[in-house]
Amino acid sequence: MDLSLRDGATSIVAINHSMSRGVLYKWRRALLSEKGAESMGKVAKPSLPDDRETLLAEVESLKKQIYRQQMELDILQKVA
């Protein structure tokens, strides 16, 4: 479990459990599917829409959100 969660270097995990790094990697490969081992430690990227218009609309929406947040911040700074 320590190896999967990266609670330290592999060599330290191996020493803590009195075994070699090779044994840890063998156990990990045996316990996890190939896909599971590949995805360990990686954060899933959000899926992006293929449609250009959808992306442009999202950009415009985010620009409006930034504008509103900046206005709110400016008002709060003047009040404080």
Largest sheet: none
Report the count of strand segments. 0
Order of helices and strands: HHHHH
On the 0 to 100 scale, the average pLDDT is: 77
Tally of distinct domains: 2
* N-C termini distance: 49 Å
The total of helices stands at: 5
Molecular shape: elongated
Which strand-content bin applies to the residues?
under 5%
Radius of gyration over all CA atoms, rounded = 23 Å
Structural category is mainly alpha
Please bin the fraction of helical residues. Answer: over 70%
Please mark out the parts with pLDDT under 50 across 5 or more consecutive residues, or reply none.
none
Name the features.
single chain; about 80 residues; mainly alpha; 2 domains; 5 helices; about 70% helix
Characterize the structure shown.
The protein is mainly α and 80 residues long. The protein has two domains: 2-39, no CATH class; 46-80. Helices cover 70% and strands 0% of the residues. The chain contains five helices and no strands. The protein has helices at residues 2-5, 10-16, 21-31, 34-39, 52-79. The radius of gyration is 23 Å and the shape is elongated. The protein starts with a helix and ends with a helix. The mean pLDDT is 77.
